[in-house]
């Protein structure tokens, strides 16, 4: 095992041994975001030099939801038995297996990541959807207390205003440490993600 794989194995087992992990799920209608991406992707690429992807939307939504539910962004100090609430948000992104910050995504694809690059972060987003995953339960990245799992977008029949419509839907999962985060907070956090992604105007109105 190389150093990266050893660190991943150590952290995953540490999470199993330490956290009381529980996962809650929801589904997100991606219609509005898909349309927004289609409409603005060329202008976005021209101005910022990068493609407008769905991950950036979920990172923005997660940052917003973390400030609304600070327990999801907190951590238990197992030495002092204290809860540490952070006054900042530092989101890591899981690309394939390594959990890394967005800054390091290109390095991960080139296998140029250092073990130190996996450190830090207050919350992780894992995107198994890029491989076609429909459903899954991500594992917490210690010492964090929660992780958001994105999955694939699939057309499904949905009941909309009493009628059946085909919508692009994504299942999302939040695995959290139940020692710190209650079900109410976890569900509220995930619903906040859903509301922002389905209607970005929520951010503008601070709803």
TrEMBL record:
Q: What class of enzyme is it?
A: transferase
The pathway to which it is assigned is: Amino-acid degradation; L-lysine degradation via saccharopine pathway; glutaryl-CoA from L-lysine: step 6/6
Q: What is the lineage of its organism?
A: Eukaryota, Metazoa, Chordata, Craniata, Vertebrata
Point out the gene that encodes the protein. dlst
Name assigned to this protein = Dihydrolipoyllysine-residue succinyltransferase component of 2-oxoglutarate dehydrogenase complex, mitochondrial
Lineage: superkingdom: Eukaryota
User: Which Enzyme Commission number(s) are listed?
Assistant: 2.3.1.61
GO biological process terms, alphabetically, are: tricarboxylic acid cycle
Keywords annotated in UniProt: Acyltransferase, Lipoyl, Transferase, Tricarboxylic acid cycle
Which compartments does it reside in?
A: Mitochondrion matrix
Q: Which residues form the 2-oxoacid dehydrogenase acyltransferase catalytic domain?
A: 1-99, 105-205
List, alphabetically, the InterPro entries matched: 2-oxoacid_dehydrogenase (IPR050537), 2-oxoacid_DH_actylTfrase (IPR001078), CAT-like_dom_sf (IPR023213)
> Which GO MF terms are attached to this record?
dihydrolipoyllysine-residue succinyltransferase activity
One Pfam match, given by its short name, reads 2-oxoacid_dh
UniProt record similarity statement: Belongs to the 2-oxoacid dehydrogenase family.
Cofactors that this protein relies on: (R)-lipoate
Recorded GO CC terms:
mitochondrial matrix
Q: What does this protein do?
A: Dihydrolipoamide succinyltransferase (E2) component of the 2-oxoglutarate dehydrogenase complex. The 2-oxoglutarate dehydrogenase complex catalyzes the overall conversion of 2-oxoglutarate to succinyl-CoA and CO(2). The 2-oxoglutarate dehydrogenase complex is mainly active in the mitochondrion. A fraction of the 2-oxoglutarate dehydrogenase complex also localizes in the nucleus and is required for lysine succinylation of histones: associates with KAT2A on chromatin and provides succinyl-CoA to histone succinyltransferase KAT2A.
């Amino acid at each position: 095992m190389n150093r990266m794989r050893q660190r991943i194995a150590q952290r995953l087992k540490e999470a199993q041994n330490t956290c009381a992990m529980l996962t809650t799920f929801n589904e997100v209608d991606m219609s509005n975001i898909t349309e927004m991406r289609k409409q603005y992707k060329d202008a976005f690429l021209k101005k910022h030099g990068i493609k407008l992807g769905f991950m950036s939307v979920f990172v923005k939504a997660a940052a917003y939801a973390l400030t609304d539910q600070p327990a999801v962004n907190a951590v238990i100090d197992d030495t002092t038995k204290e809860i540490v609430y952070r006054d900042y948000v530092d989101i890591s992104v899981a690309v394939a297996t390594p959990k890394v910050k967005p800054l390091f995504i290109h390095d991960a694809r080139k296998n140029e990541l250092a073990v130190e690059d996996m450190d830090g972060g207050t919350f992780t987003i894992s995107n198994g959807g890029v491989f076609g995953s429909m459903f899954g339960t991500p594992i917490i990245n210690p010492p964090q207390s929660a992780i958001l799992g994105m999955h694939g977008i699939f057309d499904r029949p949905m009941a909309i205003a009493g009628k059946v419509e085909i919508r692009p839907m994504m299942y999302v999962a939040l695995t959290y440490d139940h020692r710190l985060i209650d079900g109410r907070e976890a569900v509220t956090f995930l619903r906040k993600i859903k509301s922002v992604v389905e209607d970005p105007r929520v951010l503008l109105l601070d709803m």
